[in-house]
Each structure stands twice: as structure tokens, then as C-alpha cells.
């Protein structure tokens, strides 16, 4: 039986009827057309499906949409302000931290959460915070550099 | 894709217990979902009903009590890893929490989930056993407390009945001059399942004194987390010299029964048990003596 749920995604309110066996990833992509959230492994290993749920980055493939009822969700689509990229996004562009792009939304959301909690992360803290997000182009070095550069711009 | 199921979200504990006793083994509780949803996607299990206890606020509380702490079964792992209270009084738990899964997993996975799934390599059970934790189980007919030492029956198996709910984890205050440590060896530093993990806890009678209480818990080297019984025995009422700790660590190798699997061979695991037992014990003793220095200042 479908359940009626309310999601607050990128500051917009959505009321949707969902079957209990649908994940948050599926509902974001298929019902709300927010295709920035990717489904990679589907079992919580790769982090391509990362979204920020009530202030914490999580694997949306392991969250039932019904469990997210009433929650605040930020997807990659909600990170930029209008035409202006978020400092983390800008740093990814500037440092060549995007290769195929599949892991990028998750990387950026994990990095954004890190910088909100810890404005001056060390390289080790940065790597640790991104350890649930896999990049198979193996571009980690540039990603870490981008996050550290973003920390500096955000400080200004 | 997840198989089909019905989803229930009872408003209070009474209706939750009612529900669990009527649905019995057709129902599974979903907390963080990081284990159960993976198993459902892989087709390992397909429960007819999932029951969420998300509306019961009391299950999400980590609270200091007169003589210890109580941790609600739905407290997420990140919260344990970030808790100043835990780092101060039960650092072995905070340390185990901080190396569980990935940051993303830690933001969903719960302490109760890490216990009831009864994985032989789970991170929290050894740390919790090292400090003598108990769990509170509630059923329609009443509540009971079970020591974690008696909770696990084998991989995926525990004493919890189908109509019972794990509501909290209770840990009594530790005696003075107690130190602990948790160490896990994996193939990589993050998102890893332990090849071997060891939690140690030592209580001395006074700084630089003799060992009055010791718990050494070995993980991923038996069907469930186990005590290194003979290692514990040799340490009791003795001074924790490096030589004695070395002997205890060697004995710990005989206390476990590891298997060979994709993560490591049985012999290798035994060697690692020795290394990690020694290191965690030395760190636990060091932690006691460090505390004393602080107190004097």
C-alpha cells in the first residue's frame, strides 16, 4: 500500500504517494526528476547517491523514501545559489576534480558537509570525510586539493 | 530493487510491542537500514513487514545516568563517535564507532542495529563487551536485561525473540584507574570490515598497580565476539609488565578459532590477534597511568 509522505527537497515542499519499497534515490530521480543524485552500487559502498538528510550526508540508496518523511533534503541541484556555483563546486571546476562526473555530486555534498562542520580540515580529515565516496577515475588527489582550496575561499 | 513489503510506523512503544507480537517472524525492525536493506536487495531476506520505530523519541537519546550511561538503540554511530561524554568515560566505544563503515554509513547505522545483526566482525559488540554493557529487551510480556556476554549465539543469531525490541544499551560507570582501547585491522583504512579487531579494558587497583579487572574481546576470529579467556586469566592480580602482556597476547591466539576467508587466512588472523591484543593492552594500561598524571595537576 502506498504511503503519503512530505519531503522538503532543496527548500521546496513535495507531497508524494510512494510504495514502501522505493528508496529515496529512486523517488528523487524518478518522481522529482532530480537526476543529479546517481545510483552506483545500490548497497552503500560507493556514495554516488549521497544526499544531505537533516544535516548529515547519507547514502540515499539505503534510505526508504517513507523513512525520510518530513525530512529536509539537499541534493546536488540545491547546492548552487541561482547562477552562482557553491565555492566547493567552483573549486572542483578550477582544480580539474571532475573527470567522468559520476561521483561528483556525492563528493561535493560530502565535502560541503565537512566544511560546514570543520572550516579548516587537514588533508587527512578531508580524505576521511570523503572515504565513503568512491571515484573510479581515481582522481582523488585533485578532489582533495579542490576541497582544501574551497575551505580557503570560504574562509575569506 | 527491493522486494515488496508493508511498512508500519507505530506511534508508541505499546503499539510497537503489540504489532511485533502479532506479526512475529514475518516482521523485521528497520532502524538505519544499512544492513537490512542491503540484505533485502541481495535477496537474502524478504520480510513481509518492516516496522520503523522512528517515532519513538526515547530510542534516540544518549543519556548520562547516576551510575553510568544509557544509549537508546536508535542512536546513530556518528553520534557515538562525536560524543564528548563517551570519549571521556568510555573511549573504547567512541573509538570503535569512529572506525565503523564510512562517514555516510555512520550517519544512518545505529548502535542497536550493529548489535542485533550479530555479525562476527561488527565493530561495536567487542567494545561494548569490554566495558560490560547490557542490553534492555522489551516484549509484550515484560522487559529483561541481558549482558552482551550472553546475547550472541552465532552469526546472525542472538537471544532476542521475534516479538522483542532492543530498546537501550546500559553501561555502568567504570571503576577508577580503568583504561581501554579498540584496534581494528582491515585491508584499507575506511569502509572496511575487520580482518581482526580487539577491544581491551584494564582496571588497576592504583596507578602503576596490579590488574583487578581485565576484559579482552576478540572480534572476527570466532562465530561471535569472544573473551580471550586464558589471556584474561593470566593477567588478573598481576602487574601489567610488558613481558606479561606479551605472554597474555600469545595465549589469546589459543582462545580464538578463526576461519580462512577472502579477508585473511586463519593463521594470519591468529598472528594479528597476538599483535592487536598486545597493543590494545599496552594502550589501555598507558591510558590509566595518563589519567593519573592529569589528576595530580
Would you mind describing this structure in some detail?
The complex is a heterodimer of chains A (156) and B (297). Chain A is α+β, with helices and mostly antiparallel strands. Chain A is built from 5 helices and 5 strands. Chain A folds into 2 domains: 3-77, Beta-grasp domain (Ubiquitin-like (UB roll)), CATH 3.10.20.30; 87-155, [2Fe-2S]-binding domain (DNA polymerase, domain 1, Orthogonal Bundle), CATH 1.10.150. Chain A has helices at residues 24-31, 87-94, 104-117, 123-129, 140-155; strands at residues 3-9, 12-18, 50-53, 56-59, 72-74. In chain A, helix 2 packs across helix 5 (140-155). Chain B is α+β, with helices and mostly antiparallel strands. Chain B folds into 3 domains: 6-51, 2-Layer Sandwich (Uridine Diphospho-n-acetylenolpyruvylglucosamine Reductase, domain 2); 60-172, Uridine Diphospho-n-acetylenolpyruvylglucosamine Reductase, domain 3 (2-Layer Sandwich), CATH 3.30.465.10; 178-292, CO dehydrogenase flavoprotein, C-terminal domain (Enolase-like, domain 1), CATH 3.30.390. Chain B has helices at 13-23, 36-41, 77-82, 84-89, 91-98, 103-106, 111-116, 124-130, 229-235, 242-255, 266-296, and strands at 6-8, 27-30, 49-52, 62-65, 68-72, 134-139, 142-147, 152-154, 157-158, 165-172, 178-185, 196-204, 211-219, 226-227. In chain B, a hairpin with a 6-residue loop joins strand 12 (196-204) and strand 13 (211-219). Chain B starts with 5 loop residues before the first strand and ends with a helix. Mean pLDDT of chain B is 94; it is low at 293-297. The chains are: A alpha+beta (156), B alpha+beta (297). Chains A and B meet through strand 4 of A and helix 2 and helix 6 of B.
